[in-house]
Amino acid sequence: MDPIDTLVRRLRSIGTLAAEDEAALRTLPLRLLDLKKGETIVADGAVAKNCCLVVEGYAHRTKTLANGNRQIFSLHMAGDIPDLHSLQLRRMDHELAALSRCRVAYIPHGAIKDVLAESPALTDLLWRETLIDAAAFRAWMLMLGQADAPTRMAHLFCELFVRARMAQLTDGSRFELPLTQTDIADVLGISLVHANRTLQDLRSSGLIGFDQQFASILRWQELKELGQFDVSYLHYLDDEADRPVQQKS
Amino acid sequence: MDPIDTLVRRLRSIGTLAAEDEAALRTLPLRLLDLKKGETIVADGAVAKNCCLVVEGYAHRTKTLANGNRQIFSLHMAGDIPDLHSLQLRRMDHELAALSRCRVAYIPHGAIKDVLAESPALTDLLWRETLIDAAAFRAWMLMLGQADAPTRMAHLFCELFVRARMAQLTDGSRFELPLTQTDIADVLGISLVHANRTLQDLRSSGLIGFDQQFASILRWQELKELGQFDVSYLHYLDDEADRPVQQKS
DNA sequence: CGTTCAATTGACTATCGTCAACTGGCGTGG
DNA sequence: CCACGCCAGTTGACGATAGTCAATTGAACG
Question: How many Å apart are A139 CA and D15 C1'?
Answer without folding.
Answer: 32
